[in-house]
What does this fold into?
Amino acid sequence: MSRTRLISRMDIKGANLIKGVHLEGLRVIGSPGEHALRYYQQGVDEIVYMDCVASLYGRNSLSNIVEMAVRDVFIPITVGGGIRSVDDARHILRSGADKVAVNTAAVANPQLISEIARRFGSQCMVLSIEAKRAGEGWQVYTDNGREKTGLDVVEWARKGVELGAGEILLTSVDQEGTRKGFDIKLVRAVAEAVSVPVIASGGMGKADDAVAVVTEGGADAVAIADLLHYKRSTVGDVRHALMQAGLGVRNFETS
It folds into this structure.
């Protein structure tokens, strides 16, 4: 049985962990390091750090946060936001990250996906897709959900995998921060179109939302933010819900 990964998504602005709604109206939550350690101690499988203002400055500024995190946190870390070149990816990976997530720069230069995958391995190259509903489908957005691209999400996901992406971080901008659950149709459409793992992000309001997006949407992993940041639930609660539904998860107690 495949195991569903539980991933803590941590959006970062400057030195702070923040949270928004629809990727806007950002509110400071606290110290990224303290929260990462708490989620690690609760048994989260991975952490995703996203630099929310990197597109404004043209660079990712999370290397210090990652360097501090890896002293206490011994699980895979993905870093995204402002990664525009192989050199940017190398810098973040040398800081201690295991994977890089690329959105805006991949849309501008799709060959960057192949360049990063060839240099570091496809398992390091995560295609980050910010999706908004558009008619019967979904359109790809960049710059933290602000800029339209005209690209169809499912077609872009398929192309990204063909170019070498080893994983997709799929964020529903419509659902993000709403606590109303994942966009299951979106996740299912992408999961059925690609052969790599899909991380569902945006909208998780309760543990049962994770069960729904895995069983109905085909997600391989769930990204959790608001639910943990505001201490409305724990990683253990989500793991228990998945186990109760008969889904495979890492046995944290004995790992």
